[in-house]
Specification:
The chain is α+β, with helices and mostly antiparallel strands. The chain has a single domain, classed as 3-Layer(aba) Sandwich (Aminopeptidase), CATH 3.40.630. It is globular and about 40 Å long.
Length: 187
């Protein structure tokens, strides 16, 4: 199933072409505002390369994980989308989380919804998951809108033990994902 495509995007395993865009995303204060403790990471291609290698190993071990989001028209990496275990929030485990991060230049184009919609379908159809969660900082309204479009529904608020920031947990079940939706089905 990898790579996966949508009308406008290619979702593929991360590779060396992603080093510069991923490093830049992690160093952008606006991109990192709601991620983890909100800290901006100093640009470090070696750390990014190690992270990419871990992401590739996760696919081999679990059959899901992080994929680079590439705009098909330009061939440029816009960011990433992932299906992964949210170990940072032990109270919801066992669970698989869908998440995304895009470079600021790619915000507002519907790419997060399009990429996550495709990966969500993969999670239910190919990974045989019964429930998928998504976690956002309580103030992150952009991610909330993506979650709403994907059919994920608010479940509860909690605090991440590692840094004490408040998050909202959203979720969708396989049955809810298969129900007819007032929104057109995403690719």
């Amino acid at each position: 199933m990898i790579p996966m495509t949508t009308d406008r995007l290619l979702l593929r395993l991360p590779d060396d072409d992603d080093l510069a865009p991923f490093t830049a995303m992690n160093a952008d204060p606006e991109v990192m505002r709601y991620i983890g403790d909100g800290s901006v990471l100093p640009p470090d291609p070696d750390r990014t390369a190690a992270w990419i290698a871990r992401a590739r190993r996760e696919w081999q071990a679990s059959g899901h994980g992080l994929l680079s989001v590439v705009v098909r028209e330009t061939g440029l990496t816009a960011g990433w989308v992932t299906l992964t275990v949210p170990a940072f929030l032990p109270e919801i485990l066992p669970a698989v989380e869908i998440g995304w991060r895009l470079g600021r230049a790619y915000w507002g184009n519907g790419y997060a919804t399009e990429a996550a919609g495709r990966l969500l379908r993969f999670g239910f159809a190919e990974c045989d998951l019964d429930r998928i969660v998504s976690i956002r900082h309580v103030d992150n309204q952009r991610s909330r809108r993506v979650m709403d479009k994907l059919g994920l529904r608010f479940a509860f608020e909690t605090v991440v033990p590692g840094h004490g920031r408040p998050v909202a947990v959203h979720e969708i079940t396989r049955a809810a994902h298969e129900e007819p939706s007032p929104h057109p089905r995403l690719p």
